[in-house]
Amino acid sequence: MLTSLKVNQFRCFESLRLALAPGVTIFVGDNAQGKTSILEAACVLLRLQSPRASALGETVKFGHDAFAISGSLQDTELQLRYSEKSGRRLAVDGETQKRSGDFLRASELVVWMANDDLSLIRGYGDGRRRYLDFMAAQLYPAYRPALKTYERALRSRNFLLKRDAAPKWAEIDAYTRLLDEQGAILTRHRHEMIEQLRPYAAEAQKQISGREETLELTYELASGEHRRDNGDADLATELLSRRDEEFRKRQTIAGPHRDDLALNVNGMPAAKFASEGQQRTLALALKLAQSRLFFEKRNRPPLLLVDDVFGELDPGRRNALMSAWPADSQKLITTTHLDWLDDRFAGAEVVTVNEGKVAVRETP
């Protein structure tokens, strides 16, 4: 549980100090006042990545070159400092952490839910891959290092494919081996995770929709048909067999960076045939399934960061969501209005956010 949050020079905030309640905290205010940035700061501190930016440097307050975020998890103090010059510095209880894995082991599980989660269903595969990566990095210690190594190797390999009129395959193949080794770790964990996620997602879809809708999740592998004896994709052999195609396109054409998560409702692709209400339900179901899987695998509820979701839901889905989410999870919620608030939020702390300033008020 996150009991306090301190922010300096992050997004719109010059300085922010918050004490957080164990249950539900609702941040209310107009758009562009800083509500979402509070949730983003919590996510950046706890998971070392932003759900809204591709790089930490994008979150530094305009006119500055660094930010600092710290917070307390009951008896543990986490500190993150980022500078455009020196990069990232991490500390747990005042002790510097050289490896992000050591820092994250002292941190908390996080589920991010937002109104734009519809892009998980309607959007391109990169959004669904980010969903899988964010989840898998919290479940499997080896996943995050493998992903970082894979991404660096991919950038280098694509650079070499574009650099020369006649690609130097000996150099390129050095990175092919890295993609093959690290990609096997990614796909193995993704497969396992989706198998475990599938029943939770199907159950959540029925709960939120109130109907007997069937939800199917299928991992679509983009590493070709070549397999090793243990069943892992043989990406190196696949890329070798498609060398002429890579020469024409000048990019790495197979691997986990092209995998996707297929989503079918009642046997049909959700992006094409599901109604907007079904798609919105599916987006919520995926995030609820994530929270349930976290609880099952780690035996503790995750922190739920819920950004501007309730105002967009009809009463039926809103009620179903509140009934289905983990009761013991701490929840930080943003909204532009409180028209949807009812007795089930009795005891919630309401915080007004206006132009980067916060004020606690009583629950209506």
Task: Describe the protein's architecture and organization.
- The chain is α/β, with parallel strands linked by helices and 364 residues long.
- It has two domains: 173 residues, Rossmann fold (3-Layer(aba) Sandwich); 182 residues, Glutathione S-transferase Yfyf (Class Pi), Chain A, domain 2 (Up-down Bundle), CATH 1.20.1050.
- It is built from eleven helices and 15 strands.
- The protein is globular and about 65 Å long.
- 39% of the residues are buried.
Which tags fit this structure?
364 residues, alpha/beta, Rossmann fold, Glutathione S-transferase Yfyf (Class Pi), Chain A, domain 2, 11 helices, 41% helix, globular
What's a quick, concise take on this entry?
The chain is α/β, with parallel strands linked by helices and 364 residues long. It has eleven helices and 15 strands. Strand 5 and strand 6 form a beta hairpin.
